[in-house]
Design a protein that fits this description.
The protein has 79 residues and is an alpha+beta fold. The protein is built from three helices and two strands. The N and C termini lie far apart (29 Å).
Amino acid sequence: MLHRTLKNLFYELGEAHNIKFCEANSDSIAPLKVEKDKLGCKPLWLFYKDGLEIGRVEGADVPKIEKLIRDHAPKKIGT
């Protein structure tokens, strides 16, 4: 369900709002590995805007993830 929600958000907001969705392997990035070790098997979602972390969600909380994306989606000029 989460994959479908993110895919739909990408098609709805990604182009018009200049949003990029990225996935990182936490085992390959030391600071993310530390977070992963703390959380166990729960996914960690990090949200950045202008290079600064603006939010994080632990676990697959679809409504919270969607709200963070929508609340911080910048409008492109002319849209």
